[in-house]
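Fill in residues.
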C-alpha cells in the first residue's frame, strides 16, 4: 500500500509549486489525475520535467514527492477515493491541467464516451457554460456548473472508467535500462542520477 503524503510533505510540495516557473499545485494535481486516466502512457521523465518546470529543486526529495503524489493518485483511482479541490479557483486550475493532458491525447479524443463524460471538466477549465461551448439543453447553467464542481470526483471516476479498456490495450512491457549514477537523471531535473532519484 502506497501511503499518501504526510501533512509536512504536502506542505513542502505546495510551497515548491507555489514558486514561479511551473504549474501550481492544483494544476499539477489535475495533470497527474489525467495521466492516471489517459489511454496513452506518458514517460515519467516527460511529465516530471513539466511539473518541475524552470524551478530549481532544493532537494532530490522534491522530485520524489511529485512521483509519490503520482503513485498515490493511481491508488486513489483504484480505490475510488479521490481527493480533489473544493475551492472554485483551485478546481479551475485542476481542470485546466486535466484538460491539457486530455486534449493532447489522440486516443482519448477518439473515445466518444470518455469525451462526453469529460465535458464538465472542459467547461470548468475554460470557465464557460455548456451553451458557450455549443451544447444546449441545460436550463440553469450556473446551477449546473455548481453541481459539476461538487461532483468533480465522480466525474473523474466516470472518465477513468470510460477509458479502462483503452488503457489496458495500451499497456506494454517497459524495458528498464541501467542508468549510471553519474549520468543525468531521467526525471529531467538536470541533476546527476545519484543526487536525484537514485535509490540504492
Amino acid at each position: 500500500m502506497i501511503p499518501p503524503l504526510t501533512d509536512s510533505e504536502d506542505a513542502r510540495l505546495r510551497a515548491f509549486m507555489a514558486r514561479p516557473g511551473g504549474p501550481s499545485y492544483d494544476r499539477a494535481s489535475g495533470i497527474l489525475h489525467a495521466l492516471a486516466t489517459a489511454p496513452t502512457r506518458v514517460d515519467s521523465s516527460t511529465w516530471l520535467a513539466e511539473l518541475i518546470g524552470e524551478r530549481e529543486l532544493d532537494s532530490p526529495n522534491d522530485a520524489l514527492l511529485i512521483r509519490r503524489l503520482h503513485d498515490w493518485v493511481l491508488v486513489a483511482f483504484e480505490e475510488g477515493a479521490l481527493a480533489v479541490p473544493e475551492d472554485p479557483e483551485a478546481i479551475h486550475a485542476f481542470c485546466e491541467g486535466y484538460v491539457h493532458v486530455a486534449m493532447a491525447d489522440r486516443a482519448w479524443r477518439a473515445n466518444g464516451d470518455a469525451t462526453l463524460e469529460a465535458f464538465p471538466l472542459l467547461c470548468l477549465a475554460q470557465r464557460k457554460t455548456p451553451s458557450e461551448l455549443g451544447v444546449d439543453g441545460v436550463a440553469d447553467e450556473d446551477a449546473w456548473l455548481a453541481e459539476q464542481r461538487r461532483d468533480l470526483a465522480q466525474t473523474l471516476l466516470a472518465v477513468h472508467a470510460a477509458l479502462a479498456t483503452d488503457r489496458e490495450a495500451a499497456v506494454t512491457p517497459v524495458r528498464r535500462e541501467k542508468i549510471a549514477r553519474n549520468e543525468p537523471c531521467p526525471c529531467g531535473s538536470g541533476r546527476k542520477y545519484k543526487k536525484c532519484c537514485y535509490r540504492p
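Residues 7-169+178-195 form a domain with the Four Helix Bundle (Hemerythrin (Met), subunit A) fold (CATH 1.20.120.740).
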